[in-house]
Design a protein that fits this description.
Helix content: 25-40%
Structural class: alpha/beta
Oligomer: single chain
Number of helices: 11
Radius of gyration: 21 Å
Order of helices and strands: EEEHEHEEEHEHHEHEHEHEHHH
Shape: globular
Strand content: 5-15%
Bound molecules: flavin mononucleotide
Length: 392
Amino acid sequence: MPAEPLLFTPLQLRSVILPNRVVLSPLCMYSARDGLAGAFHLSHLSAFARGRVGLVFTEATAVEPRGRISHGCCGLWNDAQAEAYAPIARYISALGSVPAIQIAHAGRKGSARPPWDGGLPLQASDAAGASPPWQTVGPSAEPVGPGWPAPQALTEAEIGEVIEAFAAAARRAANAGFRVLEVHAAHGYLLHSFLSPLSNRRNDRYGGEIGGRMRLLLEVVEAVRAAWPRELPLFCRISSVDGPAEGWRIEDSVVLARELAMRGVDVVDCSAGGVAGPPAYRASDTGQALESRSERGPGFQVPYAERIRRETGVKTMAVGVIVDGRQAEAILQDGRADLVALGRELMYDPFWALHAAEALGADPERKLWPDNYGWAIARRAEIKQQNAPRPT
Ligand SMILES: Cc1cc2nc3c(=O)[nH]c(=O)nc-3n(C[C@H](O)[C@H](O)[C@H](O)COP(=O)(O)O)c2cc1C
């Protein structure tokens, strides 16, 4: 490993300098009321900033009420929600990390229970518990899968309203103090469901061949880019592949990445799956759908980030079972991605970045640790060494 690991080398995107290349992947927490972030979100997200994650993403934040996955999802369809996010963005910045937000529309995967309640669609009986189901929307009246209600197919006029809702959310995100914005176009939610031939059966301008299926996302990105400050970076998360051969393919993602870059997207965040479909493709614990658990080996989605980066020259973010500092460093060193995002590993260890820095020799004097922790952690190391069993 070089003296200065790439993982802990800053990266400039437009006017924003990320202090390192470790990213908290967006993580739905299903813990908001009326779409408002609160004390939980402040303590949850700031933990990662304290742990020196360079770029800290909020969870998928809905651009309109019916675009939530569950009643507990955060939203950005009114100014009160932006005001609730503002102290969180400010505090993440104060800790030295860059606050980022993912804006989303759940589409036909909305109106669901949180995963710890099964993640299935809300039923009429949930109304008694004050969690009534709502009418979801999608490209076509095709349900996600067996047991899911049919969404209402959006009209062209309604599509225009969704585009405006994304732009309005982008304006509020800037007002709230976020400095990176990501459009969520993955995991079978609304924008992905328009991209995929498995879910988009339209025969108007927003369906048919790839150009029609990409139209909604590209119009959203144009509107968001116009609403989001020019000096701030824009990311787009895509499902690089659907899984089934007749679905969205990596070749399509290469075409899409070029179109996104032309419209001012700075980083393509390369996830996969989630559109559901045939019974073999079931919703997984991450809201994605993949053929089998055995496919999810370490870095299983990195090849998508690598191929898109190589074939388009667009910056990419790799995500998915990145667990170890050396693995993350190798992804960057080998030029397979520009950023690495972690979800579950950071939930397990919010100080993962500091531990990775130690393992990579990037922080011999523990300067990365916050001052009020660093001196005590150094003392802890001395005591550990003193107490280590001596060779006999
Ligand atoms: C609890 C949980 C919530 C998630 N919520 C989101 C989300 O809001 N938006 C999103 O794009 N992906 C979401 N994901 C997917 C993660 O961002 C990430 O892509 C996935 O977990 C793979 O990375 P990992 O193996 O490091 O966890 C979620 C995953 C988990 C485990």
